[in-house]
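job 3f2a | input accepted
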Amino acid sequence: MPSILYFAKEGGRVISYAVRAVAFFHMFSMNAFELSSTSGDSMLPTLHVSDDYAIVDKRHKYGRNVHMGDVIVARKPNSPESWVCKRITGMPGDIILIDPSRNTLKGLRDQVAENTTKIEGQEELKRSNLNANFNNYVIVPEGHCWVTGDNLTDSIDSRTYSVLPMGLICGKLIRAWYVPRILSFKDQYFRQMDNTYCEENW
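job 3f2a | predicted structure (202 res):
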């Protein structure tokens, strides 16, 4: 008949393995990959309003090797306890029209030449007197990026809280699953988060 000492040793061994497994899983999810659910309609049609599960590549934490067009997860600049999932639409040095859904790029080069000024150590462009509400440009400073939702008409992003510090980036989305399609065995329930940025020469 096993003694109390035997059960104590076996119990200690099980606890030791469990602690190691939890520690390994924690380190893996913090530094390698993490499965995360998404919600909200700011990234439609790339991500569904709900029931989407995405693989987040944590190797891109703090903005390491991120590029224009990548879909990233980050802490919200004006509310660090909240998370946002957005697409990078501006990198350091890029000139950004703050709300492209309400304006055009016509005459951008002339406005850049005329309105560039220095503000608090970073270059920013003055608002045009012709259209003070929407004709506003900014140059993304070093160590930051500009992010927007794919659903521009319903997204709180850099147009609201300005540039995003790279240090707030927690990872990049690389794959996503839509649960209803999995349960119904429909096609295309597994998809890759492609970089859809299309560069235009102007």
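job 3f2a | The chain has two domains: 1-31, 34-94+140-192.
job 3f2a | closed
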